[in-house]
Fold this sequence. Notes:
Elements: H1 7-24, H2 26-29, H3 31-42, H4 46-62, H5 64-74, H6 76-96, H7 100-128, H8 133-145, H9 152-162, H10 164-183, H11 209-213, H12 216-246, E1 252-254, E2 259-261, H13 262-288, H14 290-311, H15 315-329, H16 332-344, H17 349-356, H18 359-364, H19 366-377, H20 381-426
Antiparallel strand pairs: 1-2
Amino acid sequence: xxxxxxxxxxxxxxxxxxxxxxxxxxxxxxxxxxxxxxxxxxxxxxxxxxxxxxxxxxxxxxxxxxxxxxxxxxxxxxxxxxxxxxxxxxxxxxxxxxxxxxxxxxxxxxxxxxxxxxxxxxxxxxxxxxxxxxxxxxxxxxxxxxxxxxxxxxxxxxxxxxxxxxxxxxxxxxxxxxxxxxxxxxxxxxxxxxxxxxxxxxxxxxxxxxxxxxxxxxxxxxxxxxxxxxxxxxxxxxxxxxxxxxxxxxxxxxxxxxxxxxxxxxxxxxxxxxxxxxxxxxxxxxxxxxxxxxxxxxxxxxxxxxxxxxxxxxxxxxxxxxxxxxxxxxxxxxxxxxxxxxxxxxxxxxxxxxxxxxxxxxxxxxxxxxxxxxxxxxxxxxxxxxxxxxxxxxxxxxxxxxxxxxxxxxxxxxxxxxxxxxxxxxx
Length: 427
């Protein structure tokens, strides 16, 4: 019978993974601060600069299945060391980029680096904590989702005082070094160091990638992942642009004890809520089930996006509603990864979730399209209402499509296991 890992051992693994994720987060979540400065310095169009964001996300996500293979072969320590080097190198390259091509190449390098870090740390959390899978992967993903809380203001201040090039260079060196140092603590769990959940249905069979790809439930999860990740990803890349177009970017929000412009205030709040949502909804899913949690979270995101499109010209509403959107969006990275491991086992989860995670790459293709649609219609409302409809579709799909499919999946697995046991007894 599997036994629990010593708490100090596996929690140390979790802490090291969170540190790595925090250091890797700036490439995605601080990008919006650099876009106006890059456009102003070089005269490039906003849409062309945002292509770099798409390149980063596509490379980060679409290489994840390959990275999953190397995680299983070489272990977490080597992968995170490589990831830390490329993560730091990306921003150093950005500091020297004098052409769009150079910007895109740097984005691709960053995608490789962050992909290695993200895939490895999530993989480790899923393997070390099957009994608390939602919470553990939620905490790990929270490091990535809210890792920029402490750096948003320093980065903004340094961009203002020293320029965006020096900011890229300095923070690139720091974040790369932190990841590489934390990598030294990582290792994979042994078979006797894990235990399963007693409240969430979890497969005792370890599916290979090929077997997982032959199940209908994989493609339902992939479709839902694309639908839900699109809205939040668009907001991450475009929030500064949306604030500017809605006319609230530089309007102060007065909290009586301090005053801050709407955009940086929203960015800070969004990072906090984005990070909080991942362990919070993951913890809830450990107790009430993944599909029910998905329904509540995805519906909240859809309603929040509709409200943002309707009331976002008010600075207070912009801050609060963008926070609601990020609160309801961040959990996709804990819920889908935990559901994948519950469904297909943890032995090959690096490759399987890596393939599922490519949904983020497909969604990233919609980021420049959203900008073009906004410019064509003159309003963000069309874009926001479209992604809200996608979120609500996924919310109802979680209850009425995914839930019965997973119930059947686990039932068939249990019947197959019982039949195998019966044959062994009679043999």
